[in-house]
Amino acid sequence: MNVAVSLNRIDPYCGRASLGIILCSQSLAIGLVGPFRGDYTAYWEGSIFVSFDFFLGERQESMSTVSLTLDTQELAHHYEQISAAHQFKAGQILIGELAIVPGERVLDVGSGTGLLAEYVAGLVGPAGSVIGIDPLPLRIALARDKERANLSFKVGSADNLSEFPAEGFDVVYLNAVFHWLPEKLEPLRQIYRVLKKGGRLGLSTGSKEHSNQLQTIKARVLAREPYRRHTGLGGGMYRVSLGELQSLLDQTGFEVQKIAVQPHVRYHPTPEAAIEFAEASSFGNFLGHLPEELRTAAREEITRELEYFRTPEGIRREGARIIAVAIKP
User: Fold this and answer.
1) Number of separate domains in the chain
2) How many whole angstroms separate alpha carbon 196 and alpha carbon 198?
3) In this predicted structure, what is the pLDDT of residue 64?
4) At 216, is the secondary structure helix, strand, or coil?
5) Cα angle 121-86-66, degrees, rounded to a multiple of 5
6) In the chain, which end has fewer C-beta atoms inside a 10 angstrom radius, N or C?
7) In this predicted structure, what is the pLDDT of residue 307?
8) d(Cα 25, Cα 28) in Å, to the nearest integer?
9) Is 46 left (phi over 0), alpha (psi -120 to 50) or beta?
10) How many CA atoms lie within 13 A of 184 on its CB side?
11) Which residues of the chain are under the pLDDT cut of 50?
12) Residue 265's CB: how many other CB atoms inside 10 A?
């Protein structure tokens, strides 16, 4: 099969390429790799594919900001339900790497509704303790329903741990949180201060080098008019590569014990379910920066494009997370 690709325009947000392919009559989707960072996805239906748009998704994300004011009761409750099958399971893998034992003091930074912190409280037992902090009050309100003698929650953020004493924790972890932090060094310095010597830091975070299909489609849609004029107002994440995370940990004095990329696949029953998952996980940032009338239109465009990833198991999303464990020497 011969494929010819020609680029005729590139700007900081999007470009266009054209190619011709003769294929069997079915709906397909492919990812292309090239000299530009980001994911380039092409779609076709029928026997001949005409053209495709691609975008520089990483550049798009880096220009966005994250808002902490878009969360709602509905999103918080929905996150409580869906995270049990996704973020919680990924968090259990991270906790296994940290080898937490009874009697340890643990800080969960970005605890959300507290599912993983509750699990860790069972590991440390009555002689240990777990504190969960999160900047989202609605999620902390749900987490407080899980409080007990060795488990507590409070509103707090990763970039200001001044309320905690130096060397007060055996373990600090961030599960699906680090990619929401626009500034990385100060939170790591704060964590270093509150860890005991020999204490462990655990991180599970999205890999910048492995954007999933939903992120790819979202960035492409938002690079179009009329959404493009609102780019930079919200909705982005600040993912890092494995090498960048290694460098950040080195800069802040940690000794990395393990760092690896772990691919994963998720299935959602419908495109709408995939979008709802993203909205709850991003505490309203997925499309929340758009005016309401544009938000509905963008959802419809994303929904249509997600259909290209339908399989018998549902809408397939491939991605990868970075798992890192480091110690304070």
Assistant:
1) 2
2) 6
3) 55
4) helix
5) 95
6) N
7) 96
8) 9
9) left
10) 21
11) 1-63
12) 11
Question: Are the C-beta atoms of residues 43 and 305 closer than 8 Å to each other?
Answer: yes
172, 162: one domain: yes
Best CA proximity match to 106, nearest among 203, 198, 205, 195: 195
Are 112 and 140 contacting, i.e. CB atoms less than 8 angstroms apart?
no
In this structure, what token pair is assigned to residue 209?
A: 């080098």
Q: For residue 219, what is the domain's CATH number?
A: 3.40.50.150
Is 96 in the same domain as 230? yes
SS3 of 49, please? strand
Residue 167 and residue 164: Cα distance in Å, rounded? 9
Residue span of the structural domain in which 321 resides = 57-329
Mapping DSSP to helix (H, G, I), strand (E, B) and coil, where does residue 47 land?
Answer: coil
Dihedral angle at the C-alpha atoms of 158, 94, 279, 137, nearest 10 degrees? -40
Both 214 and 268 in a single domain?
yes
Cα-based distances in Å from 329 to 94, 189, 192, 198, 255: 20, 14, 10, 5, 7
Q: Give the domain-ending residue among 18, 34, 55.
A: 55
Whole-number pLDDT of residue 255 = 98
Same domain assignment for residues 236 and 275: yes
Q: What confidence score (pLDDT) does residue 235 get? A: 57
Burial class (CB in 10 A: 0-12, 13-18, 19+), 26: exposed
Q: Are residues 35 and 85 in the same domain?
A: no
139 phi and psi, to 5 degrees? -80, -35
- Is the pTM here over 0.85, yes or no? no
Query: Does residue 82 contact residue 280 with C-beta atoms inside 8 Å?
Result: yes
Q: Show the tokens assigned to 65.
A: 């900001």
Residues 197, 69, single domain; the answer is: yes
Residues 6+ apart with CB under 8 A from 157: 133, 135
- If asked whether residues 47 and 133 sit together in one domain, one would say no
Is the domain of 83 the same as that of 50? no
Helix (H, G, I), strand (E, B) or coil at 67: coil
pLDDT attached to residue 258: 98
pLDDT for residue 305: 97
